[in-house]
Specification:
The complex is a heterodimer of chains A (369) and B (205).
Chain A lengths: L1 E10 L2 E7 L4 E5 L6 H13 L18 E10 L2 E10 L5 E4 L2 E2 L12 E4 L5 H4 L2 H15 L1 H27 L4 H40 L6 E6 L7 H7 L1 H7 L10 E6 L2 E2 H4 L2 H23 L4 E4 L8 H12 L6 E5 L2 H10 L4 E7 L2 E4 L3
Parallel strand pairs in A: 3-13, 3-14, 8-12, 12-13
Antiparallel strand pairs in A: 1-2, 1-4, 4-5, 5-6, 6-7, 9-10, 10-11, 14-15
Helix pairs in contact in A: 3-4, 4-5, 4-7, 5-9, 10-11
Chain B lengths: L6 H11 L6 H13 L2 H17 L1 E2 L6 E2 L13 E8 L2 H10 L4 E5 L18 H8 L5 E4 L5 H14 L5 E4 L15 H9 L2 E2 L6
Parallel strand pairs in B: 3-4, 3-5, 5-6
Antiparallel strand pairs in B: 1-2, 6-7
Helix pairs in contact in B: 1-2, 4-7
The chains are: A alpha/beta (369), B alpha/beta (205).
Bound molecules: adenosine-5'-triphosphate, magnesium ion and zinc ion (ZN).
The site of zinc ion has 8 residues of chain B, from loops.
């Protein structure tokens, strides 16, 4: 599966462009603010029906224009497929596959699988635990429909349990039986989610480590651990042991809503002790492992968008990454970079089918042949 | 909005705007409509509302809204008093009655357990249900609550309370979409789900 052609009209800083891509690696090169990330975002739109960066659809219309159109021609299973995304100011977004409009946008998501790596992703390492749980949950939900339902129900139950703890505190009362109805429902769901997350990490970890090893030329030992209060503990007992504490906090202090993924470099927390380049390598390896899982589930190789990933990486790692994704296990790749020299150097060393596009303030010029 | 030319008008609009689903605009439309009606009709309207509040009763047996101490359903001889359908409120009673498929009586809880809304088990008509079971008046209970977390939790709570007694506890078949409220389910589907009720098997099963 790959994106053969992209047509933009009034999308962000592009007035009208038409681009034909390589099946393999495509590089957008240009100075800051020229529109490289905007091009990736247009491709993201075609997979997710929305922008990765700006959730206000209308703000993606080129200033002083009244509409935008993104059109893509994909080749999937040797068939040509057309995606159309159009937005007129103050109107509902139109999203069509082969001229047929979707009634639910969610039905399209997943049809052209895609993985994006952007500078914002550093949050996965340095941000709060909810970002890492979201990372894990969004991957598991893609292959396990029950998981998402369980998670939603679990969160609702915990929310009600917390409300009850607040009521207890406000009214200075306590009723064990009333609390237990929530616990008894939370426990089986929590255990199920814990099981699914453990299984996920068990599968994910070796793939992640393989990629990290390759990118870092085997220079660092990384670790990824699933950290959960439920591991090795009986959830029911955890809840009952912490009742007094929970009543004081007016909040449920144990459960899978406290889970985290712990990232390590050579035995130390990646958050504090990873260099910028190491953290970047870490994220790329995470996303490539995500790619593997998605490819297996969807039976198609997802498109990969690399936004500014080479920034902060030494040329050895850059070459390793290009080597890796040139491989047949990977499909189509889009890369942005400000340094033409860096891109040229890589492709001198790593022979791979590729196209380079110069992005210059809304204009695009092919630079290699 | 301080643009009303009359305090009387403003008060009336504010009263209507308190109703669920009625905004200021609609409220104004209602009030202007009432002002166009003749006196007698408006009096009748007002009196009906006042009498409703003053004279309404709740059935001593099932807690349904009623004109008498015991509601029509509970006082109909041909209805099976040993079969009790547990519902949230009168809207569910109306929905199930409309299916013409049910010949038992009801027990109206008056809500579902939801700490977030300040509703606990003791705020609902649960103890009177347990009393009925204890007095061996009931052979089967059909739990017909909405399939939300709160509805499910209420079923679960009642089920736990009834465990020690010998009776059948069933729930209406879950052909009804998750999260749907009973009153929105069409009559045929709802009727079928009552006939094909299944033994209660716990939450999130
Ligand atoms: N709706 C819009 N209409 C017109 N221009 C827009 C719109 N939205 C964003 N832009 C412009 O797009 C430019 C940013 O493009 P983009 O983020 O793709 O740059 P970039 O090439 O990735 O730069 P960098 O190297 O700094 O990441 C900005 O100049 C911004 O003003
Ligand atoms: Mg950019
Ligand atoms: Zn009655």
């Amino acid at each position: 599966m790959y994106l053969q052609k992209l047509l933009l009209t009034n999308f962000k800083n592009f007035h009208e462009v038409e681009i034909e891509f390589s099946e393999k690696i495509n590089c957008f090169v240009g100075n800051n603010g020229m529109g490289k990330t905007n091009l990736l975002d247009a491709i993201y739109y075609l997979s997710f029906c929305k922008s990765y960066f700006n959730l206000m659809d209308s703000q993606n219309i080129k200033h002083n224009e009244s509409f935008f159109v993104i059109q893509g021609t994909y080749v999937k299973d040797d068939n040509s497929e057309n995606v159309y995304c159009g937005l007129k100011q103050n109107q509902k977004k139109q999203f069509k596959l082969n001229k047929k409009e979707y009634s639910r946008l969610a039905d399209h998501v997943g049809y052209f699988p895609l993985v994006i790596v952007s500078p914002d992703d550093s949050e996965i390492i340095i941000g709060g635990s909810e970002i890492r749980r979201k990372f894990v949950d969004s991957i598991i939900s893609q292959y396990d429909k029950v998981y998402l339902d369980n998670l939603i129900n679990y969160n609702k139950l915990v929310f009600q349990r917390n409300s009850l703890l607040k009521r207890f505190a406000e009214s200075r009362t306590y009723n064990k039986e009333n609390l237990e109805i929530w616990d008894e429902q939370i426990v089986p769901l929590g255990n199920e989610i814990h099981k699914k997350r453990s299984e996920f990490v068990d599968n994910f970890k070796p793939v992640f480590e393989k990629y990290y090893k390759f990118i870092s030329l085997n220079n660092e030992k990384v670790g990824l651990e699933y950290n959960s209060q439920l591991s090795g503990n009986d959830f029911k007992k955890l809840l009952s042991d912490n009742v007094e504490k929970d009543r004081m906090l007016q909040y449920t202090s144990t459960g899978i809503h406290k889970d985290d993924l712990v990232f390590m470099f050579d035995g130390f927390p990646a958050k504090k002790f990873g260099s910028q380049g190491q953290q970047k390598s870490f994220i790329i390896a995470l996303k490539l492992a995500q790619f593997d899982l998605l490819a297996e589930i969807k039976k198609f190789k997802p498109v990969i968008l690399f936004d500014d990933v080479f920034d902060k990486l030494d040329h050895l790692r850059v070459e390793q990454i290009i080597k890796l994704v040139s491989d047949n296990n990977f499909g189509q790749i889009f890369i942005t970079d400000t340094e033409m020299q860096r891109i040229n150097n890589v492709f001198e060393k790593v022979k791979s089918e590729h196209k380079i596009f110069n992005v210059d303030n809304g204009a695009i010029i092919m630079s290699n042949v | 909005m301080n643009t009303f030319s009359s305090k009387l008008l403003e008060d009336a609009v504010n009263q209507f705007a308190k109703l669920p689903g009625v905004g200021k605009k609609t409220a104004i439309r209602y009030v202007l409509h009432i002002l166009k009606e003749d006196n007698v009709q408006v009096m009748d309207f007002g009196n009906t509302i006042m009498r409703l509040r003053e004279e309404i009763k709740f059935c001593k047996n099932c807690h349904n809204i009623s004109d008498n101490e015991i509601c029509e359903i509970c006082s109909t001889n041909s209805r099976d008093k040993s079969l009790v359908c547990v519902v949230e409120d009168i809207r569910d009673v109306i929905a199930i009655e409309n299916t013409n498929q049910y010949n038992g009586i009801y027990h109206v809880l008056g809500g579902v357990i939801s700490p977030m809304d300040g509703v606990g088990p003791s705020d609902l008509n649960i103890s009177t249900l347990i009393d009925k079971v204890r007095n061996r008046e009931i052979k089967e209970i059909v739990l017909a609550l909405k399939t939300t977390i709160e509805g499910d939790t209420t079923c679960f709570y009642i089920f736990k309370k009834l465990k020690e007694y010998e009776l059948n506890v069933s729930t209406i078949a879950r052909g009804i979409a998750i999260g749907d409220e009973l009153e929105y389910t069409d009559e045929i589907t709802l009727g079928k789900s009552i006939i094909n009720r299944v033994p209660y098997s716990g939450v999130h099963a």
